[in-house]
Design a protein that fits this description.
Blueprint: H1 3-12, H2 25-35, E1 38-39, H3 41-44, H4 53-62, H5 69-82, E2 86-96, E3 101-102, E4 109-116, E5 119-123, E6 136-137, E7 143-145, E8 148-157, E9 160-168, E10 176-186, H6 190-202, E11 213-217, E12 221-226, E13 229-234, E14 237-242, H7 245-255
Antiparallel strand pairs: 1-11, 2-3, 2-4, 2-10, 4-5, 5-6, 7-8, 8-9, 9-10, 11-12, 12-13, 13-14
Helix pairs in contact: 1-4, 4-5
Length: 256
Protein backbone atom coordinates (compact mmCIF):
# COMPACT_ATOMS: atom_id res chain seq x y z
CA UNK A 1 0.00 0.00 0.00
CA UNK A 2 1.27 3.46 -0.85
CA UNK A 3 2.75 5.59 1.93
CA UNK A 4 0.12 8.35 1.84
CA UNK A 5 -2.73 5.84 2.05
CA UNK A 6 -1.04 4.06 4.95
CA UNK A 7 -0.54 7.33 6.81
CA UNK A 8 -4.08 8.44 6.02
CA UNK A 9 -5.57 5.23 7.40
CA UNK A 10 -3.42 5.52 10.51
CA UNK A 11 -4.61 9.10 11.03
CA UNK A 12 -8.34 8.36 10.77
CA UNK A 13 -8.32 4.92 12.40
CA UNK A 14 -8.90 2.65 9.40
CA UNK A 15 -6.99 -0.66 9.12
CA UNK A 16 -3.84 0.05 7.13
CA UNK A 17 -4.40 -2.82 4.70
CA UNK A 18 -8.07 -2.02 4.07
CA UNK A 19 -8.63 -1.12 0.42
CA UNK A 20 -10.69 1.98 -0.31
CA UNK A 21 -13.71 1.22 -2.49
CA UNK A 22 -16.51 3.50 -3.61
CA UNK A 23 -18.84 1.69 -1.22
CA UNK A 24 -16.55 2.48 1.72
CA UNK A 25 -16.10 6.20 0.94
CA UNK A 26 -18.97 7.27 3.21
CA UNK A 27 -17.35 5.57 6.19
CA UNK A 28 -13.93 7.01 5.30
CA UNK A 29 -15.34 10.52 4.83
CA UNK A 30 -17.11 10.36 8.20
CA UNK A 31 -13.95 9.21 9.99
CA UNK A 32 -11.99 11.95 8.24
CA UNK A 33 -14.47 14.62 9.35
CA UNK A 34 -14.35 13.42 12.96
CA UNK A 35 -10.55 13.23 13.06
CA UNK A 36 -8.99 15.99 10.96
CA UNK A 37 -10.01 19.53 11.95
CA UNK A 38 -10.81 22.37 9.61
CA UNK A 39 -8.47 25.02 11.00
CA UNK A 40 -6.37 28.06 10.17
CA UNK A 41 -3.54 27.90 12.72
CA UNK A 42 -0.82 27.93 10.07
CA UNK A 43 -2.20 31.23 8.75
CA UNK A 44 -2.51 32.78 12.21
CA UNK A 45 1.01 31.65 13.10
CA UNK A 46 2.38 32.85 9.73
CA UNK A 47 3.68 29.35 9.12
CA UNK A 48 2.64 28.73 5.51
CA UNK A 49 4.30 26.08 3.38
CA UNK A 50 4.10 25.39 -0.33
CA UNK A 51 1.17 23.14 -1.20
CA UNK A 52 2.66 19.83 -2.34
CA UNK A 53 1.61 16.25 -1.79
CA UNK A 54 4.58 15.70 0.51
CA UNK A 55 4.00 18.85 2.56
CA UNK A 56 0.29 18.10 2.99
CA UNK A 57 1.02 14.55 4.12
CA UNK A 58 3.65 15.78 6.56
CA UNK A 59 1.45 18.49 8.07
CA UNK A 60 -1.87 16.65 8.29
CA UNK A 61 -0.92 12.98 8.54
CA UNK A 62 2.45 13.00 10.30
CA UNK A 63 2.21 16.13 12.47
CA UNK A 64 -1.53 15.44 12.92
CA UNK A 65 -2.68 18.98 12.23
CA UNK A 66 -5.67 20.12 10.21
CA UNK A 67 -6.07 22.65 7.43
CA UNK A 68 -8.40 24.60 5.19
CA UNK A 69 -10.12 23.56 1.96
CA UNK A 70 -7.03 24.09 -0.21
CA UNK A 71 -5.17 21.61 2.01
CA UNK A 72 -7.80 19.09 3.14
CA UNK A 73 -9.43 18.44 -0.22
CA UNK A 74 -6.14 18.15 -2.18
CA UNK A 75 -4.89 15.66 0.43
CA UNK A 76 -8.05 13.57 0.01
CA UNK A 77 -7.72 13.95 -3.76
CA UNK A 78 -4.21 12.43 -3.61
CA UNK A 79 -5.62 9.66 -1.42
CA UNK A 80 -8.33 8.94 -4.00
CA UNK A 81 -5.80 8.85 -6.84
CA UNK A 82 -3.60 6.39 -4.93
CA UNK A 83 -6.63 4.13 -4.57
CA UNK A 84 -7.52 4.11 -8.25
CA UNK A 85 -10.35 6.64 -8.30
CA UNK A 86 -11.00 9.05 -11.18
CA UNK A 87 -10.88 12.33 -9.27
CA UNK A 88 -10.30 15.97 -10.15
CA UNK A 89 -9.94 19.17 -8.15
CA UNK A 90 -12.24 22.09 -8.96
CA UNK A 91 -12.69 25.63 -7.71
CA UNK A 92 -15.78 27.19 -6.24
CA UNK A 93 -17.20 30.37 -4.72
CA UNK A 94 -18.67 30.18 -1.22
CA UNK A 95 -22.07 31.75 -0.62
CA UNK A 96 -21.99 34.33 2.16
CA UNK A 97 -25.16 33.58 4.13
CA UNK A 98 -25.09 36.80 6.16
CA UNK A 99 -24.69 39.01 3.11
CA UNK A 100 -26.96 36.92 0.91
CA UNK A 101 -24.46 36.85 -1.93
CA UNK A 102 -21.42 34.99 -3.17
CA UNK A 103 -18.16 35.86 -1.42
CA UNK A 104 -16.17 38.74 -2.82
CA UNK A 105 -12.94 36.74 -2.62
CA UNK A 106 -14.10 34.79 -5.65
CA UNK A 107 -12.99 31.32 -6.63
CA UNK A 108 -11.12 30.35 -3.46
CA UNK A 109 -12.93 27.18 -2.43
CA UNK A 110 -11.32 23.92 -3.49
CA UNK A 111 -13.47 20.82 -3.85
CA UNK A 112 -13.28 17.33 -5.40
CA UNK A 113 -15.15 15.95 -8.40
CA UNK A 114 -15.31 12.18 -8.70
CA UNK A 115 -16.40 10.07 -11.66
CA UNK A 116 -17.54 6.55 -10.84
CA UNK A 117 -19.27 4.24 -13.33
CA UNK A 118 -20.06 7.19 -15.64
CA UNK A 119 -21.69 9.13 -12.79
CA UNK A 120 -20.30 12.40 -11.43
CA UNK A 121 -20.15 13.13 -7.72
CA UNK A 122 -18.93 15.93 -5.46
CA UNK A 123 -16.78 15.11 -2.43
CA UNK A 124 -15.79 17.67 0.17
CA UNK A 125 -13.65 17.21 3.28
CA UNK A 126 -12.79 20.90 3.63
CA UNK A 127 -15.98 22.85 4.22
CA UNK A 128 -15.93 23.31 7.98
CA UNK A 129 -19.00 21.91 9.71
CA UNK A 130 -20.92 21.70 6.41
CA UNK A 131 -19.55 18.36 5.21
CA UNK A 132 -21.84 16.02 3.27
CA UNK A 133 -19.97 12.92 4.58
CA UNK A 134 -20.89 11.07 1.39
CA UNK A 135 -20.36 11.48 -2.36
CA UNK A 136 -23.13 13.79 -3.61
CA UNK A 137 -24.38 12.88 -7.12
CA UNK A 138 -24.78 15.48 -9.83
CA UNK A 139 -28.26 14.07 -10.59
CA UNK A 140 -29.92 16.42 -8.09
CA UNK A 141 -30.82 13.51 -5.83
CA UNK A 142 -30.86 14.38 -2.12
CA UNK A 143 -28.46 12.40 0.04
CA UNK A 144 -28.92 12.27 3.79
CA UNK A 145 -26.25 11.75 6.42
CA UNK A 146 -26.01 12.37 10.14
CA UNK A 147 -24.86 15.91 9.30
CA UNK A 148 -27.96 16.74 7.24
CA UNK A 149 -29.30 16.68 3.68
CA UNK A 150 -27.27 17.63 0.62
CA UNK A 151 -27.89 17.95 -3.11
CA UNK A 152 -26.30 19.35 -6.26
CA UNK A 153 -28.30 21.83 -8.30
CA UNK A 154 -27.46 22.69 -11.89
CA UNK A 155 -27.14 26.45 -12.32
CA UNK A 156 -25.97 28.88 -14.95
CA UNK A 157 -24.34 31.74 -13.12
CA UNK A 158 -21.04 33.58 -13.17
CA UNK A 159 -19.76 31.53 -10.24
CA UNK A 160 -20.22 28.15 -11.91
CA UNK A 161 -22.49 25.56 -13.48
CA UNK A 162 -23.43 23.67 -10.29
CA UNK A 163 -24.17 24.55 -6.68
CA UNK A 164 -23.98 22.50 -3.50
CA UNK A 165 -27.13 23.00 -1.44
CA UNK A 166 -27.55 21.82 2.11
CA UNK A 167 -29.91 21.57 5.03
CA UNK A 168 -27.83 20.88 8.11
CA UNK A 169 -29.34 18.70 10.83
CA UNK A 170 -30.65 20.70 13.83
CA UNK A 171 -29.52 23.97 12.20
CA UNK A 172 -31.35 24.62 8.91
CA UNK A 173 -35.10 24.62 8.39
CA UNK A 174 -34.77 25.27 4.67
CA UNK A 175 -32.30 24.55 1.91
CA UNK A 176 -29.42 26.99 1.56
CA UNK A 177 -26.51 27.38 -0.84
CA UNK A 178 -23.10 26.23 0.32
CA UNK A 179 -21.11 27.21 -2.74
CA UNK A 180 -21.21 27.25 -6.52
CA UNK A 181 -18.50 25.48 -8.48
CA UNK A 182 -17.44 25.21 -12.09
CA UNK A 183 -17.16 21.60 -13.24
CA UNK A 184 -15.12 22.77 -16.24
CA UNK A 185 -12.72 25.00 -14.28
CA UNK A 186 -10.40 22.30 -12.98
CA UNK A 187 -7.19 22.73 -11.05
CA UNK A 188 -4.44 21.40 -13.27
CA UNK A 189 -1.40 22.79 -11.46
CA UNK A 190 -0.58 22.91 -7.76
CA UNK A 191 0.50 26.52 -8.24
CA UNK A 192 -3.21 27.33 -8.36
CA UNK A 193 -3.55 26.00 -4.82
CA UNK A 194 -0.66 28.15 -3.66
CA UNK A 195 -2.34 31.19 -5.22
CA UNK A 196 -5.53 30.37 -3.31
CA UNK A 197 -3.54 29.96 -0.11
CA UNK A 198 -2.02 33.41 -0.61
CA UNK A 199 -5.44 35.02 -1.10
CA UNK A 200 -6.92 33.30 1.97
CA UNK A 201 -3.89 34.18 4.09
CA UNK A 202 -3.32 37.76 2.94
CA UNK A 203 -6.49 39.30 1.50
CA UNK A 204 -8.06 41.90 3.82
CA UNK A 205 -11.55 40.48 3.19
CA UNK A 206 -10.56 36.93 4.08
CA UNK A 207 -12.32 35.61 7.18
CA UNK A 208 -9.48 33.20 7.92
CA UNK A 209 -6.69 35.68 8.72
CA UNK A 210 -8.39 37.53 11.58
CA UNK A 211 -8.86 35.02 14.40
CA UNK A 212 -7.97 31.36 15.01
CA UNK A 213 -10.68 28.86 14.12
CA UNK A 214 -10.78 25.10 14.64
CA UNK A 215 -13.79 22.88 14.02
CA UNK A 216 -14.50 19.22 13.44
CA UNK A 217 -17.44 16.88 13.50
CA UNK A 218 -18.03 14.47 16.37
CA UNK A 219 -20.14 11.35 16.73
CA UNK A 220 -22.99 13.46 18.15
CA UNK A 221 -22.55 16.82 16.42
CA UNK A 222 -19.57 19.15 16.13
CA UNK A 223 -17.19 21.34 18.10
CA UNK A 224 -15.80 24.77 17.24
CA UNK A 225 -13.03 26.67 18.98
CA UNK A 226 -12.03 30.30 18.47
CA UNK A 227 -9.93 32.61 20.61
CA UNK A 228 -13.09 33.78 22.37
CA UNK A 229 -15.52 30.84 22.50
CA UNK A 230 -15.79 27.05 22.58
CA UNK A 231 -19.06 25.82 21.05
CA UNK A 232 -20.35 22.26 21.22
CA UNK A 233 -23.33 20.75 19.41
CA UNK A 234 -24.47 17.47 21.00
CA UNK A 235 -27.58 15.74 19.62
CA UNK A 236 -29.04 19.08 18.54
CA UNK A 237 -28.29 20.90 21.78
CA UNK A 238 -25.74 23.72 21.73
CA UNK A 239 -23.51 24.99 24.55
CA UNK A 240 -21.09 27.89 24.38
CA UNK A 241 -18.42 28.98 26.82
CA UNK A 242 -16.01 31.90 26.88
CA UNK A 243 -12.31 31.12 26.62
CA UNK A 244 -9.08 32.95 27.38
CA UNK A 245 -5.60 32.21 26.02
CA UNK A 246 -4.85 29.53 28.63
CA UNK A 247 -8.21 27.82 28.07
CA UNK A 248 -7.78 28.05 24.31
CA UNK A 249 -4.43 26.23 24.48
CA UNK A 250 -5.90 23.63 26.83
CA UNK A 251 -8.89 22.93 24.56
CA UNK A 252 -6.68 22.56 21.49
CA UNK A 253 -4.75 19.80 23.27
CA UNK A 254 -7.94 18.13 24.48
CA UNK A 255 -10.01 18.21 21.30
CA UNK A 256 -7.84 19.04 18.30
Amino acid sequence: MNKLTTLFHQRIGVPENEAAAFESLASILEKTAETIPFENRSIMENNLREITKENLAHKILEKKEGGLCYELNPLFYFYLLENGFNAKLATGVVFNQAAGQYAALGRTHVTILLNHKDQSYLIDTGFGGNLPLIPVPFTGETVSTKNGDFRIKKVKIEQGDFALEMKLKHKDADWRIGYAFDSQNLITNLNQLNEIQTIIAKHPESSFNKHPLLTRLTETGNITLTDSHFTQWVDGNVSKENVNKAKFDELIKLFF
